[in-house]
Structure formats: structure tokens, C-alpha cells
Amino acid sequence: MVLGAAISISAAAGANQINNTNSPSPGAAGQARDLYLEVFINGVSTGLIGNFKQLPDGGLAATEAELTEVGLKPVRSAQADGLVRVDRLPNVSFRLDEPAQRLYVTSTDEARAPRTIDIGTIGKSDRPQPQSSLGAVLNYTLFGSSNSLFEKHTDLFQGVSGAFDTRLFSPYGTLSQSFIAGYSNSPVDRFTRLNTTWSYSDPNRLVTYRAGDVVSGGLSWTRPVYLGGLQVQRNFALRSDLVTMPLPSFSGRAAVPSTLEVYSQNARTFTGTVAPGPFQLVNLPVFTGATETRVVLRDSLGRETTATLPFYASSSLLREGLLDFSAELGYPRRNFGIESQDYDGRLMGVATARYGLTDWLTLEGHFEGGNDLLNGGIGAAFPIWTYGVGSVAVASSEHNGRTGSLVNASLELRNDRWSIFGRVQRTFGQYEDIASITAKPSIDPRFPTAFSAKVPRALDQVAVSVPTPFDASNLTFSYTNLDTGDSERSRIAGVSYSQQIFGRSTLFATAFKDFGNKGGFGLFAGLSIPLGSDINTTTAIEHGRDGTNFVADVTRSERLEEGSVGWRVRTSEGKTTNRSAAVSYRAPVARVQAGVEQYGGSVRATGQVDGAIVVAGGDVFASNRIDDAFAVVDVGAPNVEVQHQNRRVGTSNRRGRIVVPGLNSYEPNTISIDPSNLPVDADIASTRQVVVPADRSGVVIDFGVNNKPNAALVRFIDSRGLALEAGLKGRLLSGSGEFVIGYDGEAYIRSLSSQNTVEIQRVDGASCRAEFQFRPDPGRQVVLKDVPCH
Predict the structure, then answer these.
(1) Which residues, at least 6 apart from 394, have a Cβ–Cβ distance to it below 8 Å?
(2) What dihedral do alpha carbons 365, 366, 367, 373 form, nearest 10°?
(3) How many CA atoms lie within 13 A of 207 on its CB side?
């Protein structure tokens, strides 16, 4: 899009004119001279200095990159000996003022290279390198319940079960192991291994390597599977600032220096100035789905030119040149969560790739197979104007001489508050994939098979959301048709609606009907009312296979801060009474929850504990659950408040340390402390640090608090008894310590000894020296007043 109909540049310039004012003759015959010149275009400085060569015939030349950088468009006809001659550029003339080292260029807009403004990089400094300390984490969830509290001749204890996730992390990767276990009088409970995986991520190549239990990569028309083996996978999440979706761009012209503003979803995301001439905005921020970006160009007289760009952003598309891939080799795993070591004996391989051929076409490919299976397919995703994204894919398979094929197409559209999603998938013949040929029914009677592992013969999905006459409310219709090919067919239609009323209250309703083999009808509708202080009430009616129930629910949400309390009281009155009450508390070392539940005539009690044990930084900590990264913060003093992203997370323990959970891997995390509780004589280099932890690892942050800094606040005076001027610099002669004089002649000086001499540079260039004694006073700030400097 071109912006600048009202504010456009107008420059009349001749072509191929050379006017070399105040310039001496060129160098020796056959030799070119290097000139470094400040470039002015149409009388306005570009603020750039270009490297040019003055040729023996008096002409100027530069490289293509240099010309583009200073704002001139290189053309092939002006090239000579690997350089571009400025005097041969069409619609360009120049005047060289060599004594002032300036080059004055007159040019039309067509001959100028637009200045590129990359909004995606503005305000982003160099990211810290990802780091990982050495340590371990054990996450645990323990759940226990009783039998009916009021039944006689029944043991009160029913049992306890737990889910555990342990990992060892280091700069060389993370080794994780998860399992579930239980204890009760029943033979059902036992130990079951879940995942055992080592992973290592390379943030420079954006690749993650895994060994052990892995999930294969996939596309919208494939089915990922568990494998025991190896995986190499592109991981764009290693760069949180990298946007993989195609982004819109603007082109425009400014006749005079102007102010440029960019608005996305009515929020200003950029403001800056542009010089006269053409410009281009790239990497404009957008939101997923239908979005609209508005660009406003305003000159010094207040005249505005506005342009609006509708755009559709989707993760289904990749930016031009980006490659996403995943490759696995291993043995398919079966009955995950039921059996610890159930692997198919056939070695299988999987490869998946997506490539942004252009910003409007993303190609997809998938292959999987082994010694008795071959399956492969290709697909493409593409935008549909500015309203949505579509995709198509075809695949075929061969298994033991039987062949089959698959066709898949999807569409997502959105315009204003309207949205449509549709998907159609069909298989023909004997289409197979790894999941269908390796799955087998569980032989464990506790877990009867309730699903088909075959690729569905038919799958249709439609969802339509339409606005209603009421403000900010939508009515959504959905339909799903699933034919597994095993005489099981589901055709489910649904409708949902929500509307804000009375300020923050919400009226909602959801209903569905299954027209397939199983039939069925369900309804859930009600009113949700927030009461403040994180308390929310809900009253509703629900209808299903168990009849009609009336529900009332009052909840107080629990926060992430230490000491937060949450609770919930719920009742469901109908054919079978179901009532419950629970309270939870987030302590510094774990989260605990207790509750009681009545179902019919049975009443039982439950309890749950969620937490983590951390070994890092040479210490052992108990903490709340840590699912991603964390930090061990060493403050150096007890009872000091620590914050993560400006949110309080707790205070340091008696050893001056605290575990901060909830950090995000491969993203900048800001950890800060409140120094108000530090000892008054403590010395601290900084109260804020930014860290980027590696994958699910921990980092140790030492704020460098020195409780014995040997520092004092010294007030210096001159020979007249007046305080030295603020801003003067001084140094401690007995060491390398430097300091600055502040207001009232005061300076904070570290690394003092019992006898000290300092030298201070005065305003007139002279220097003075001062001598003073120092004696530490633990727990107090040492202050030395009126130290003369001669």
C-alpha cells in the first residue's frame, strides 16, 4: 500500500548532471580516491556518511549497498567495474562540496530507495544469552481421599495417589522422568512410568534435540504418535521475539519532515519521525486472526494522511524463507499411561516440513513409515485476500500390499465479528498410518478400549459465529460429522451464546444434539456474576443423560502470591444430589487443598498437595510447582522482598535466598528486589537483573550484596568551607575506586581502609587532595562530614 496522496514529494531535477563545486582536480590518472561524505538529498541531510570513490574522470561511484543505505536506488545501467556510478543514475544530479565533506543530491522519488523502518526491532536491545545452572527439580502432586465418612464397617482410608515429574538440568541439556504411583488396599494402584526424555536446545540454530520418549511432529491432516527414539525438531519458541507469520508492510512518501504513528487494533504501537522522501514500514505488529493496522502521517502544519490496511494473520502461514521441520526415528509406544514398557517392535521413521515459499504460499510435506508401511503427503496453505486462510492436502499409503489415500481441505474466514471455520477430510481404500497399524486394544480390564485407532473415513467440521443485535455478543453454531468406519458415527450439532449484562455479569448458554448412533442431548445455561475481591457466583441449569440439575457455584480465585487463599462451594440439585466445598492455600513451600464432597448418600473427604523440591545453587528448597524455568535468587540478607516481572513472589529466607518459580524459558525475565529491608550499611551493585533461562532449567542470580562494604558517605568542602560542586569526579589513591560528588558535596566511597587519601578534579582543571580516617560501624551507615580538600 502506498501512503502519501496528500503529502507527497515534488522535486524537479535534471538527469546526469555533475556540478563539482570547490573541488580540486581528481587524483592521478587511472586512480580513484576514497571520499567520506555527508549526504543531503533535496536539501535535507540524511544523517548518514557515505563511502564514495571519485573516479579519474570526476564522476562518483559507490557500491549498491552503500547507495541503498544513503537513500538512492541503484540501477543496472549505471554499473561499472562492480560499482554504481552516481552520475549515471537517471533523474539524479549532485553537487560535491569537498572542503565541507558534503554531497548534495537532487533526485525524484522514483530514483530514491525508500528508507526501511523495521518496527519489529525498535526498542529491542541485544538479548542475554540463555543460561542454565546445574541442579534438579522434583514436582509432585499427592491426592488422597477417604471412603464414605458415615458408613459403618468400612475403613476410613481409601488411598493416596501421586503424579511425579523429576528432571536434571545442566548446560548440556535436561533429563526428565515422569511417573504415577499410588498406595491403597486395592491391587489396582502401582507404579507406571510415563516419559523418560533427554533434550537439548540450540538457540542459535533454533533446533531442539531429544532422545527417549518423544511425540512426532505433525500437521493439521496427520496424527502425531509417541515414539521411543530420537528427534530433531525446529523450535521457533527459542526466540520469543521471532515472528514466524507473514506481516504486513506499508510504503509511503513524505514531502517534509513528518511524524509517523502506527495503530494496531486501535492501540498505538509505534511513533517516530520520517525524513522527506519515500519510506517503507516492515514487521508491523498484528494479532492472530483478522486485524487492521492504521498509519497516520502528520507534517509540521498538522496536516494528516491516514491509510488503513486490513490483514489476516495465521500461524498456518510461514514468512518467506522460513523452514519448520521435525524428524523422528524410533519404536511406536502403545497404552501410554497404562503400561510402562509397551513398545511396538517395528522401527518407524517420521519427517514433517513446512516452508514459506512466499508470504502468500506455505508448502507442507509429511512422510512416515517402516518396513511394512509407507505413508506420504503434500499440502499447501494460502491466504484468502484479507479475510482468512485456506489449506489443501493429499496423502497416500501402502501397507502389506493394501493402498489408500486421504484428501483434506480447511477454510477459516473472519470479517469484523463474523467468522467461519470449515474442514473436510475423506479417506479412500485402506489408508493407514503409524497410529492405526501399531495400536492394539489394552488387555487391562481396568481400561476398556472406547475408541477406534483407524483413520476416520469421514470427518467434517463447521463452526459459524455471527454477531447479534446486542453489543459485543456472538451466536456460535457448530457441527461435527465423524465416521470411524467401524459402524460408529457421530453427528453432533451445537450452539452457544454469551452476553454481558449489568456491567460485568455474563449470561451464557450452550446446547448440543447428537444425531448419530448414540444420540443424546445436552444443555447448560446460566448467569455468572462477579462480586469483587476475586469472588464469582454462577447459577445455572444443566440437562443431560442423568436428567435435569440446578447448579449454584460460588468461587474465590486463588492468586499466585504466597499466602493467597481460595475456596469454592458448589451444589447440584436434581435426581442425584452432588455438593462439595473446598479451600486451598498457597504456602511458600507448596499448595495445599482440602475438601468434602457429598454424592447421593455418600460423603467423603479429599486432600491434595502440589509442590516441588529443588536442588540448585548448593542448597535444597521446597517450593510451589515448577513446570518451566525458575531462579534461585541470592539476596544476601533475610526478609528482602523479591519480584518477578514487577509482581511480588515472596521474601528471602534466613539464608538470604528464595526460589522464584514461573520463569519462561528462552524469554527475558526481570527479577528485582526491594532494598528497603537490607541493612543500612549493605552495599548492592544493582536491584534489577534480566535473565534468559534455558529449557525448563534453573539459574542462580546473585545480587552481590556486600554486608561489609567498608563504605562511607563523605562530605567534602574547599578551603573556604564551602561544599564542593556536584558532578566532580574523584578517585581513591590507595586503590582503583572512583566516585562522583553529589549534592551538598557528598560522595559515597567504597573499599575504604583505616587511613585514606582521595584526589578530586576541580572545575578549573586543577585537583585537590583530602585525607580522612575510616572506622566501620556494623549496622549503621558511616557518615564523615566536612572533610577539607586542599
Answers:
(1) 377, 378, 379, 405, 406, 407, 408
(2) -130
(3) 8
Q: Are 408 and 221 in contact (CB under 8 A)?
A: yes
Residue 616 — φ and ψ, nearest 5°? -165, 155
Spatial CA neighbour of 1 closest among 253, 373, 358, 178:
253
pLDDT, average across residues 580-601: 92
Query: What cell was used for 580?
Result: 462439595
CA distance 303 to 5: 12
Q: 295-322 pLDDT, tens per residue?
A: 888 887 778 888 888 888 888 999 999 9
Cα–Cα dist 21/95, whole Å = 6
Q: How many CA atoms lie within 13 A of 19 on its CB side?
A: 12
Per-residue model confidence as pLDDT tens digits over 69-125: 888 988 888 888 889 999 889 989 999 888 889 999 998 888 888 887 777 665 555
Which of 569, 557, 622, 573 has the alpha carbon at shortest distance from 596? 569
Q: Which helix (H) or strand (E) holds 243?
A: none
Q: Which three cell numbers stand for residue 199?
A: 533434550
> Can you list the alpha helix ranges (DSSP code H) found in 179-323?
none
Give the span between the Cα atoms of 86 and 230, in whole angstroms.
57
Q: Which helix (H) or strand (E) holds 434?
A: helix 434-438
- 12 band by pLDDT with thresholds 50, 70 and 90: very low
Cα angle for residues 278, 281, 284 (degrees, 5° grid): 165
Q: List, for residues 371-384, the tens digit of each pLDDT value.
A: 889 999 999 999 99
- State the DSSP string of 157-209: EEEEEEEEEEEEEETTEEEEEEEEEEEESSTT---EEEEEEEEEEETTTTEEE
Task: Centre a 10 Å sphere on the Cβ of residue 432 and count the other Cβ atoms it contains.
Answer: 24
Instruction: Return the DSSP state at 550.
Output: E
Residue type, 445: P
The single-letter code of the amino acid at 669 is N
For residue 790, which of 770, 771, 772, 773 has the smallest C-alpha distance?
Answer: 770
211-230 pLDDT, tens digit per residue, is 999 999 999 999 999 999 99
CB 69 within 8 A of CB 51: no
- The predicted pLDDT at position 669 comes to 92
Give the model's confidence band at 614: pLDDT under 50 very low, under 70 low, under 90 confident, else very high. Answer: very high
**643 neighbors 649 (Cβ within 8 angstroms):** yes
What does residue 684 show for φ and ψ, rounded to 5 degrees?
-135, 135
The kind and range of the H/E element at 210 are strand 207-215
